[in-house]
Design brief:
Layout lengths: L1 H26 L6 H13 L3 E4 L6 H11 L4 E5 L6 H5 E6 L4 E6 L6 E5 L6 H13 L1 E4 L2 E4 L5 E6 L12 H6 L2 E4 L5 H13 L11 H13 L4 H15 L13 E3 L3 H17 L7 H12 L4 E2 L1 H5 L4 H11 L4
Parallel strand pairs: 1-8, 1-9, 2-5, 5-8
Antiparallel strand pairs: 3-4, 6-7, 10-11
């Protein structure tokens, strides 16, 4: 097994140069926000959809635009609004009077990279239309189903402040997002650099550094990264502890959790930990990789009770307790 890990490590080393090039390009327009950038790269490496939550002005849209420019992929930005219809997203059948037939006009969802801006502003009809694209990676228009070109990645943003004119996302859809990343304000020195870039207009244009085949190659290497049986047991224990905290001796959280994480959380924890190992240049997963990605994978899958809200406890507080309590292999 050690020889295999060594081979994988060499492959990771060969591909890490591509990731560095990508990070350099993103650094031209984004200051700081390393966590957001690394999580978008995790999404790219595993083809997992990412939900970014943060107040306006934290470069969520900017970084996704920059990512699309740095990759040689098709990209569409869709601004979600309360009057958006499923046909605006997926496309529709158009009648051709000349020969009395219908032809399909494909919508903006037919692209490799989709930016769903302010996703929580559109009603549930639109969300359910997006659900098929996210899960099956295909779109049904009329009675025809069209496969979406790979890679296909939905990067969505939502603003946690405004409740006016927003719709809570259906749980089934939230669960389709591999990661939910919460974005905080920049540090003082970072904000100063943002100001300098804006006032002096020093932001450089982003150039395309990766081809589609490079993305596929990196995804294949990530799938080869070794995950030990003990790590797999650890992942399953973490997820099960969200459903039955008492079994894992996690104190003070049972009354805070209404519903625990689904089995999809276990899969995404494994995939995400592999991507973190890849970004760190390793051919194997460590327990720390699992811990690093745990908040982003679990925070939108742990549904809290009213008691938790009354005590002003967040999902992150609950996950922290679980990570502290479940024994690390």
């Amino acid at each position: 097994m050690h020889a295999d890990i060594q081979q994988v490590k060499e492959k990771v080393g060969e591909k890490s140069d591509l990731i560095r090039q990508l990070q350099v390009e993103l650094g031209k327009v984004v200051v700081g926000q390393e966590h957001m950038v690394s999580r978008l790269l995790v999404g790219l490496l595993t083809e997992g959809h990412v939900l970014l939550e943060g107040v306006p002005g934290l470069a969520k849209t900017t970084v996704i635009n920059a990512l699309a420019q740095a990759l040689s992929v098709s990209f569409n930005r869709i601004q979600f609004t309360p009057d958006l219809l499923p046909a605006d997203l997926l496309g529709t059948m158009i009648y051709v009077p000349g020969d009395g037939t219908f032809k399909t006009r494909k919508g903006p969802v037919f692209a490799n990279l989709i930016l769903a801006d302010e996703i929580n502003r559109a009603p549930s009809k639109v969300q359910s239309a997006l659900l098929e694209a996210m899960q099956e990676r295909q779109v049904t228009i009329g009675d025809e189903s069209y496969p979406l070109e790979r890679p296909f990645l939905v990067l969505a943003t939502q603003n946690p402040i405004e409740q006016e004119g927003t719709y809570p996302l259906p749980e089934a859809q939230v669960d389709r997002f591999m990661l939910k990343v919460t974005i905080s304000y920049p540090k003082q020195d970072e904000e100063r650099r943002v100001l300098d870039m804006a006032l002096e207009e020093t932001a450089r244009p982003v150039t395309s550094v990766l081809q589609v085949q490079d993305i596929f190659d990196m995804q294949q290497v990530v799938k080869m990264i070794y995950v030990d049986d003990q790590i797999k047991e650890y992942i399953v224990s973490l997820v099960r502890a969200t459903r039955d905290p008492a079994e894992y001796k996690v104190r003070n959280v049972a009354e805070l959790i209404d519903f625990g994480a689904s089995p999809r959380a276990s899969i995404f924890l494994g995939m995400g930990a592999r991507a973190i190992a890849f970004l760190n240049g390793r051919g194997y997963v460590t327990p720390q990789d699992v811990k690093d990605i745990a908040f982003d994978v679990l925070r939108h899958r742990v549904i809290l009770t009213y008691e938790a809200e009354a005590e002003e406890k967040t999902a992150d507080d609950v996950i922290r307790e679980i990570l502290n309590a479940v024994p690390v292999p």
